[in-house]
Amino acid sequence: MKYLIALFFIIILYSLGSALYYMMKDGDGSKRMVKALTMRVVFSIALFLFVIFAFWMGWIKPTGVN
Amino acid sequence: MQSREEYFVPSGSYWPILGSIGMASMLGGFASSLHGSMAGTTAMVLGFGIIIFMVFGWLGQVVHESETGTYNLQVDKSFRMGMGWFIFSEVMFFGAFFGALFYVRHFAVPWLGGDGNNQFTGEILWPQFKAVWPLINMPLPDNFSIPKGIIDAWHIPAINTMILLTSGATITWAHWALVTDKRNQLIAGLVATIILGITFLGLQVYEYAEAYNHLDLKLTSGIYGSTFFMLTGFHGLHVTLGTIMLIVILMRAIRGHFNKDRHFGFEAVAWYWHFVDVVWLGLFITVYWL
After folding, report:
1. Which residues of B touch A34 (CB under 8 A)?
2. Which of B85, B102, B145, B197 could hold B243 in an S-S bridge, CB 3.0 to 4.6 Å?
């Protein structure tokens, strides 16, 4: 489960990082940055929904007092 | 021979020295206020005021220079490089706090409990100590504020995650509006993002009040309390800064600044907002869940 969440994170960081790269590299006319950021938002929402689903299925539980 | 454009070099400015005075006054005053000096507290507040004045004055001048067409593409590139270094420092900043959390959870606390080759550390120092996370039962509890519990991931943290993720979507909606020349949608997207940011901060304040007043979870609650408040607190500070920057961008958008070909100011603030959003997602997963 942790690996799956880590995979989501890698994809999110990759899209955020590539948006940064496009911001540094391209001029303002380019749409590559906003496309990468859109991917970032989509994967972030997917990860949040996945965490809720995983909790609902009983795969993970929140940090609690043991 | 290839001709070169002139690179804009501003004339002498008093903003840097004013900023230095403000910073010296704020930090010197802060140090004195820790010793209970009233004059120190006054100097700290005054210094903070000078810094705010400097930021708005200096950046206002930059906006004016930009809008009057002083900057060429080379200057634009310089701004982008400056933003790159700023982001690098931010990544390192949060990296240090996430690193501290990781080190404590995976190494320091288990070692104190006798993990690895530290069996005698556990047996000799604190034989009763059990290394569990969150670390609520400290080996020497007298020195700490012992929490009755921790913040439940399902209540405010989950709501706040939804709020920030939605704000990520609204800022992207505004970004698309800007690159496709839809001014009203740009303004609406910015307004929505600002409202969501302020809501997030309000709920975060409520969560802190809950932690302090009902759970006894404080900055002095040992390593759990320290890492929890340092990470979420500094994140909150970044959301505050991001919201202020978004308000400035909104004012500029209303005044007709930015177009689909020139809008680096917007891009930088939007990326910063996305970054703060991703940091929260990391916090939500590592602090509240894993």
Report:
1. 172, 175-176, 179
2. B197
